Amino acid sequence: MHSEFLMGNAAIARGAIAAGLNVVCGYPGTPSTEVLETAAKCNRGNLYVEWSVNEKAALELGAGAAYCGARAMVTMKQVGLNVASDPLMSLAYIGVKGGTVILVADDPGPISSQTEQDTRTFAAYSKLPCFDPSSVQEAYDMIQEAFAYSEAYHTPVLFRPTTRICHGYASVTVKDEDEYLVNTPEGFVKDSSKWVIFPRLSFRAHADIEQRNAKLSEVFSGYTRNEIQPAGTGIRKGVAAHGINYAYTAEALQNLTEKPAVLKIATPFPFPEQKALEFLRSVDEVLCIEELDPVIERALIFVCGKYHLSVNIRGKLSGDMPASGENTCASVAAALAKFMGAALPETAKRPEPPALPVRPPVLCAGCPHRASFYAVKQAMKGQKAVFCGDIGCYTLGNAMPLDMVDTCLCMGAGVNITQGIGKIEPDTVCFAFVGDSTFFASAITGAVNAVYNQANMTLVVLDNSTTAMTGHQPHPGTGRTMMGQIVDKVSIEAVLHGVGVKTVETVNPLELEKAIETVKRVSAEDGVKAIIFKSPCAVLIKPESPAVIDTDKCTNCRRCIKQLGCPGLVLKDGRVHIEQALCTGCGLCAQVCPFEAIGGASCRETS
Amino acid sequence: MQRNILICGVGGQGIVLTGKLISAAAMARGIPVMSAETIGMAQKGGSVFTFLRLGDDLHCPMFPPASADLLIGFEPAEAVRMLPYLKEGGKVIVNTHAIMPVTAALSGSDYTGTEMLDYLKQQVPALTALDADAACKELGSPKVLNMIMLGAAIRAEVLPFTTDEIEDVMRKTVKPQFAEMNARALRYE
């Protein structure tokens, strides 16, 4: 044992490796991404690591490995579980041989997600055991236990940290390498009565699952991480919490003199009913402190009904806690103080500060997506056009002044949404923007659908040769794998030609005039056509020397700023100025300036 | 001993590394550490922060408002934004150099940071304001901004470390060719 300072996601990866992990696969998604990245970094050569094309592919690969007796972990964010839900629901019936943990990071807030869905609810729906860690240290320890439970009960299990656990750091006690468990997979043993899903098997498996979950509810009542802390003498109030909310509660309790009983729920499903019953028998009133769904609140109400207990259960459903959004140390402390009838500590009030500058996320200086959006915007000037966006950095193309994302729903949706709009509004020029990683993840089927069903649309692939939004992971188009191999790149152009898209043109968006001309020409064709805007992510390349403004030519018309909204273009003493530390020298603003006042190092800024 | 520290600024200023060095110094001393930072879309140009907690009996990586013993603000408005987290009597180190957001250029506003610094001066008795960007120019690299700020923070005597201890962990973290310049920045006064 020794101590290390680890991010939650790193602790999860390290814990899984200590538990004898053989295979880890997944698809990047905040806040889950660093789990797989850490596992890859710590690979001692005995671990297979891959970024799969999407979560469904990852889960299926993980299942295959687990059928062989491998210990497998599949990583994703909560909306990734939607993509993986098809294999997940069936795998719950088939079960596994090697321990299998599906790591699904939830995102209360949401901070960087489309939904506030709760994987604890998904656990109940898919009937799979679920683990919910409350600290970085607990995440490290609990993931090892999750593997053990999975293997003991031959079922995949869900492990669902939230953002504050994933991205929190702590000094953690970890195992030394010689304490690691080693798992040697037995190999795939053929048995079609076990591995081939048929209605007869499913009928039997369903009954078994219900029985097992009833058993697990009892087992989990004895699991030490489902814990009761008794109330102070004479106090008949209790708090039920989970995950980071348990940490917020513990923090707040330090300042309360009257301590309520605390029920910590580490396994929201199967719910540890007997443990909850023991807790409920000691209290008259309970405040449930949860994020996302009122999972514990509903379970406690159920237990009260089942055992005829007269305990008042409060939380989201009663309106005592907010129905949506993230809790904080402060919000939990306030809710607890109110519940306990205690006063909140007085803090000095400062006068209102001056209006603070807003810093919304924007496309980086030099981002090629800015040029791509701008080219399409210019080409479509005066025409009725719709721009369906997708998930990635390029969703930020919605911000002013570009204003080029009319829809965004989920991974790969834009290519199909634009077809739907085109069917109802045939006079609209329909565009779908999709990034390279998203293209491989889930837009290829959309392209096939468009070709087959005679859509009239332009697919614009924003190919920056990386998965930029989640921190630059490789994908099939990059020619690199997480095992360090250099492999053949899957060509987006060849894929599109292969599925029947006849016109596929590749152009550098930073060559503005050519890009605009290409969009005009290609989008005017009938049927499905594609433009690949190919230019690497500005973060990954060595910048050119920054642009400078020739102040003799600059009329301060600010067209560059108003058209592009590049963070490198700022106002300094009322005049347009190029922030030298930010500018990558992409040259887009030079092509937009009507006075040729922006140029490379040869132009001298004299101000 | 428990210490709550908040480091804030604009993405790209080297805030994450500053937090990492303080954490590493604590680990070297065997002091338990927790921290939390902004990750994701705020990478560049957005408001970013690192919450850091040192000491025993820590439960969560973030702390409630009015709890920070020390606030290290790399940008005046960002220091003001996070000021509610400062506890009464807490110290603030602020860089006086303002960073204009892209939206300010679009809307034509002229944010300079002066009003933010005035507000800080009124509200924080234990305020150290320094032009760390000017110091960077003097030292010859914009990349040592975080070390200048960290050096000033150490001298405020809230963190339980000496400059030597921070220099030690810094040398283990940064590339050897940058160590000397960073060491000078740590001691810049």
Keywords:
heterodimer, A: 607 residues, alpha/beta, Rossmann fold, 4 domains, 6-stranded parallel beta sheet, 5-stranded mixed beta sheet, 16% strand, disordered C terminus, B: 189 residues, Pyruvate-ferredoxin Oxidoreductase, domain 3, 8 helices, 6 strands
Structure description:
The complex is a heterodimer of chains A (607) and B (189). With 607 residues, chain A is α/β, with parallel strands linked by helices. Chain A folds into four domains: 2-221, 3-Layer(aba) Sandwich (Rossmann fold), CATH 3.40.50.970; 227-340, 3-Layer(aba) Sandwich (Rossmann fold), CATH 3.40.50.920; 368-534, 3-Layer(aba) Sandwich (Rossmann fold), CATH 3.40.50.970; 548-599, Alpha-Beta Plaits. Chain A is built from 21 helices and 22 strands. In chain A, the strands form six sheets. In chain A, strands 3-2-4-5-7-6 form a six-stranded parallel β-sheet, with helices on both faces. A five-stranded mixed β-sheet of chain A has the order 9-11-10-12-13, with helices on both faces. Chain A has a five-stranded parallel β-sheet with strand order 14-15-16-18-17, sandwiched between helices. The N and C termini of chain A lie far apart (61 Å). Mean pLDDT of chain A is 95; it is low at 602-607. A six-stranded mixed β-sheet of chain B has the order 2-3-1-4-5-6, sandwiched between helices. Chain B has eight helices and six strands; from the N terminus they run E-H-E-E-E-H-E-H-H-E-H-H-H-H. The mean pLDDT of chain B is 91. In chain B, helix 1 (15-29) packs across helix 7, helix 6 (145-155) packs across helix 8 and helix 7 packs antiparallel against helix 8. Chain B is of the alpha/beta class and 189 residues long. Chain B has one domain (2-186): 3-Layer(aba) Sandwich (Pyruvate-ferredoxin Oxidoreductase, domain 3), CATH 3.40.920.10. At the A-B interface, strand 1, strand 8, helix 11, helix 14 and strand 20 of A face helix 1, strand 2, helix 2, helix 3 and helix 4 of B.
